[in-house]
Amino acid sequence: MRKVVLITGMQAAGKSTIAPLLASRLGPPAATLDGDVFHHGVVAGAVGMTPDPAPEAVRQLELRYAATAKIAQHYADAGFDFTCSDIILGADVERWFTALHDVEPHLVVLVPSVDSIVDRELGRGSTSYRDWQPPGGTLADAVRALQKSLEDTPHRGLWLDTTHQTPDQSVETILENDLESSRW
């Protein structure tokens, strides 16, 4: 049975770096996909998520999640292990896994410290938290606001604090015991 690993967490947690590294250690064959592909694929009429999202933003997010699950299933059906990196939180995690069948499902939630995320965001010059920043608030306030979504995420799989880990160290931790700690 092929492994499908969902790597989720906050923006700048390391998902897009760790997922392909992990995929390269699975299989062969193994493939990976970053959910941002579908986010950036909406080139006209894109509506971003905010703390109070528009119905169209929610619809587009649900389309993205459904697309990544279908691609994961497609590759697993073709005999590939698969990693998906995306910000899938709360009840959406369970819905994502429910869309899969005949795979060995794994969940990795990356949870570096708020300070670590702030440093990474500033280092890459990103403004991805701007809609979550309260008036007069800091980037750290914005990260903490979005982090509340983690509280509703099922506490299953591997929750990994990557604050003081290199990407390679994170992958080693995930692979310990043949991914047993991340089993959904």
Write the H/E string, N to C: EHEHHEHEHHEH
Task: Bin the helical content.
Answer: 40-55%
- Spans of 5+ residues with little confidence (pLDDT < 50)? none
Number of helices: 7
**Spatial order of the strands in the main sheet?**
2-3-1-4-5
What is the radius of gyration?
16 Å
Largest sheet: 5 strands, parallel
Mean pLDDT: 94
Structural class: alpha/beta
Spatial gap, N to C terminus? 14 Å
The shape, in one word, is: globular
Strand runs, count:
5
Textual characterization of the structure:
This protein has 184 residues and is an alpha/beta fold. It has helices at residues 15-25, 36-41, 55-77, 91-98, 114-124, 139-147, 167-175, and strands at 3-9, 30-34, 81-85, 104-110, 158-160. The protein has a 5-stranded parallel sheet with strand order 2-3-1-4-5, with helices on both faces. Helix 1 (15-25) crosses helix 7 and helix 5 (114-124) crosses helix 6 (139-147). The longest helix has 23 residues, at 55-77. The model has no long low-confidence stretch (mean pLDDT 94).
